[in-house]
Design a protein that fits this description.
Layout: E1 6-7, H1 8-15, H2 19-28, E2 34-35, E3 41-43, H3 45-58, H4 64-71, H5 78-111, H6 118-133, H7 141-159, E4 169-173, H8 179-187, E5 192-197, H9 200-210, E6 219-223, E7 241-247, H10 256-266, E8 267-277, E9 284-286, H11 290-305, H12 316-322, E10 326-337, H13 342-358, H14 361-366, H15 372-384, E11 391-402
Parallel strand pairs: 4-5, 4-7, 5-6, 7-8
Antiparallel strand pairs: 1-3, 2-3, 8-11, 9-11, 10-11
Helix pairs in contact: 1-2, 3-4, 5-6, 7-8, 7-13, 11-15, 13-15
The chain binds S-adenosylmethionine.
């Protein structure tokens, strides 16, 4: 008697999965059924057993390619694979613990207000919550305008060598208001770009930015948290992309290494990673000013309290190497501004860098890092560098790597 077998639809219904997931798992070699002469998938008892083993491993969050290797006995060091996975879970737990502690601190400030008055408490709690959100710049309209100015000004410097071939699937994470997305789409005609951000407000701006342009059809915006990728199903599933693009995101994350490791799982074999980040330690200017340096230090400190790193540019190579990528190349991209470059005076020194530092005024004061007068003096001195005898210097770092 022929052993009992099931179609993909029957098994999907029995296992509580979608047909799409089972097809994807077949393509990755996690569970590959036999095919009938007409090409239909048939799952026998051995494949059903394997599916339940895969599901058990998947519930621990293990990546699909690792599951496929483990179940096919292709993994020469299964214990090491599982131990590395345990380490990742422990890092996740530590991050959740840090979030819990920040929330507890914020609530403690509400429960035990200082004698200085209620307004003070409210400001401190708001500052704490801003940090708790983990994104120091926030999502006010003025910040969205700043990101757009930044992208326009820096396009040539950062993207002269960016571009993906027609047909390639590109994942952009932390796309914000779509400022880099528009450039990516323009430089990669025919590529399909999936752009992800955790903020619905930023994504709405991004959608509006591309609406009615030639690129509307090739870019898909999806709201998602990069620390929770990949998704089991849908446009953000594992191994779904040829290229990953990250710009000004890692500096805001509590555990950029963990995210870089997650992003590897999004890539297909031979996939590439591109990361662009700044480093506020590279900002120096004439006339020099300790008040201006103190204002920049407020931004660095707030970002650090939020779990980020405004000095991450210098760490890109070691981070990407530790995450397991190969063929890493990092290029410094320096913006040097003086009166001979009025577009950069306006677009970079004034509307990008100084606007970004000015944006942390309230939380910096509320957190006790500065006084209103000292902070404002710092901003005035940064603006002073935009006069005809002033200069400004900042270095971004652009890294590329392979899986
Ligand atoms: C400085 S903006 C950069 C935006 C864009 N890449 C650009 O260069 O214009 C950082 C973006 O990362 C997003 N972000 C922060 N944490 C995130 C997370 N965990 N998952 C997805 N997006 C995140 C923020 O909402 C914000 O839009």
């Amino acid at each position: 008697m022929e052993p009992r077998s099931w179609s993909v639809g029957e098994l999907a219904a029995a296992a509580g999965l979608s047909v799409r997931v089972l097809r994807h798992w077949d393509a990755l070699g996690v569970v590959s059924p036999v095919r009938t002469p007409s090409g239909h998938r048939r799952y026998g008892p051995a494949e059903v057993t394997r599916l339940y083993q895969a599901l058990a491993l998947r519930r621990t969050g293990l990546p699909l390619d690792r599951i496929a290797d483990l179940l096919s006995a292709r993994d020469a060091t299964p214990a090491a694979t599982l131990r590395a996975h345990l380490d990742r879970i422990e890092r996740d737990l530590a991050r959740t613990q840090r979030m819990r502690d920040r929330l507890a601190e914020a609530l403690d400030a509400i429960d035990n207000p200082p004698v200085s008055g209620e307004e003070d408490v409210l400001m401190k709690v708001i500052a704490s919550m801003t940090m708790f959100e983990g994104y120091v710049h926030g999502h006010r309209p003025i910040e969205h305008t700043r990101l757009a100015d930044q992208a326009d000004t820096l396009t040539r410097l950062l993207h002269a060598d960016t571009g993906y071939p027609a047909g390639a699937r590109v994942l952009e994470v932390g796309c914000g208001v779509g400022a880099q997305t528009a450039t990516l789409a323009r430089l990669s005609p025919g590529a399909h770009i999936t752009s992800v951000d955790v903020s619905a407000a930023a994504l709405e701006q991004a959608r509006r930015r591309l609406a009615g342009t030639d690129h509307e059809a090739t870019v898909e915006f999806v709201q998602a948290d990069v620390t929770r990728l990949p998704h089991d199903d849908g446009p953000l599933e594992e191994n779904g992309f040829d290229h990953v693009f990250v710009c000004f995101l890692l500096e805001h994350l509590t555990d950029p290494l963990e995210v870089l490791i997650r992003l590897r799982r999004m890539l297909r074999p031979a996939g590439t990673l591109t990361v662009i980040e700044g480093d506020h330690g590279s900002a120096y200017f004439h006339p020099d000013s300790s008040a201006a340096r103190d204002a920049i230090a407020c931004q660095i400190a707030l970002q650090q309290r939020a779990g980020g790193d405004a000095l991450i540019g210098r760490r890109l190579r070691p981070l990407i190497a530790e995450a397991g990528y190969t063929d890493i190349a990092v290029a410094p991209r320096t913006v040097y501004v003086d009166a001979d470059h009025p577009d950069l005076v306006e677009g970079f020194t004034r509307r990008t860098f100084t606007a970004m530092i000015a944006g942390v005024r309230e939380p910096a004061i509320a957190a006790g890092l500065t006084t209103p007068a000292h902070f404002d003096a710092g901003i005035a001195d940064l603006l002073r560098t935009t006069e005809t005898d002033g200069t400004f210097h900042y270095t971004f770092f652009k890294a590329t790597a392979h899986l």
